[in-house]
Amino acid sequence: MAARDTAAVAVLPDAVNPCALSLNESPFPPLPAVRAAVRASLDSLNRYPEFLPHRLRSVIAGRLGVAADQVVIGEGATGVLMQVLHALTSPGDTLVMSTPTFDGYPILARMARLRPVTVPLDRHGHHDLDAMADAAVGARVVVVCRPHNPTGTVEQVSALERFLSRVPADTVVLLDEAYVEFLAPEHRVDAVDLVHRFGNVVVVRTFSKAYGLAGLRVGYGFCAPALGRALWAMQLPFGVSLPALVAVVASYEAENQLRQRIRTITAERRRLQMRLRAMGVYTTDAQANFVYLPGAAVRWSDAFDGSGLLVRRYDDGGVRITVGSRASTRAVIRTVAAAMR
Ligand code: PMP
Known about the structure:
The protein is 40% helix and 15% strand. By secondary structure, the chain is α/β, with parallel strands linked by helices. It has two domains: 3-31 and 256-340, Aspartate Aminotransferase, domain 1, CATH 3.90.1150; 33-253, Aspartate Aminotransferase, domain 2 (3-Layer(aba) Sandwich). The strands form two sheets. It has a seven-stranded mixed sheet, sandwiched between helices. Strands 1-10-11-9 form a four-stranded mixed sheet. Helix 5 (104-111) links the parallel strand 3 (94-99) and strand 4. The structure holds 4'-deoxy-4'-aminopyridoxal-5'-phosphate (PMP). 4'-deoxy-4'-aminopyridoxal-5'-phosphate is lined by residues 24, 76-78, 102, 104, 145, 149, 176, 178, 206, 208, 214, 219. Residues 21-327 form the Aminotransferase class I/classII large domain. InterPro entries: Aminotrans_II_pyridoxalP_BS, Aminotransferase_I/II_large, HistidinolP_aminotransfase, PyrdxlP-dep_Trfase, PyrdxlP-dep_Trfase_major, PyrdxlP-dep_Trfase_small. Belongs to the class-II pyridoxal-phosphate-dependent aminotransferase family.
């Protein structure tokens, strides 16, 4: 039987489905060099990976220009976040987050038995950093996503620094940079410098988004060395697979091709935003690989019913739409145009 006819292969998702716009995945299948490296790793799958992911940690630390003991590795950013909560919180502690936010946060807060405190975004989809800094007093953890999910908004560097200097030193700040690679240079913050200056900040990143490796489940966090050692103590034995290790190394080697893909995605996002605004549709100032249409004026979630497009729907009727191929953009515009008629 050909491999593609087996039941095992039948459970795989379609790599290039233009309608799959609900999870902020990359529309591109893995780069040839990444596929080749992963394929080569399959021959060693009878062997365990390293007990603790020292090699991947030093590759990532070298890339960032930090010491190895400042880095931890997880099953996606989600795994890193859970590791941080495991290492640094006790049941009943408070976790402050904005609302709406990445769906994982309420789930992880529940799993770690934390008390969630939510702070509404402002009407343009930005964090209310003053209210979050107030709420951070007495809290164990406060989460800031930059860019934010679902709105894609980016807080000014000066506002972020002001916020960090207001948060008590014994409150951990999770700075979630899952989409950082999509940021234009003027929005970048020197995160390595931040963790140097603020010993309570953990920056979390992932290979799921710009690197297009969501199926491999690999992400990392970095922070000051003292905090890094506490997090490394919670590093799951044999927790990072061989394919994940080689895929990251191959991705770093294929940086130029990845950059080109990121440029394609951000150009497509700008095009989609321009088309939406030209149609009179309000959309937040999203800087990642998705756009967000709040539900206030129109119930966009209803408009996407029956469109065949999978988008993330919110209770208020808002939708978050991943930027995909040109065909995806056209299908989104058609659906929005039909709703406005
Ligand atoms: N943080 C944010 C803000 C996200 O949007 C996501 C994925 N949607 C994650 C973390 C987790 O991503 P992963 O676990 O795939 O790395």
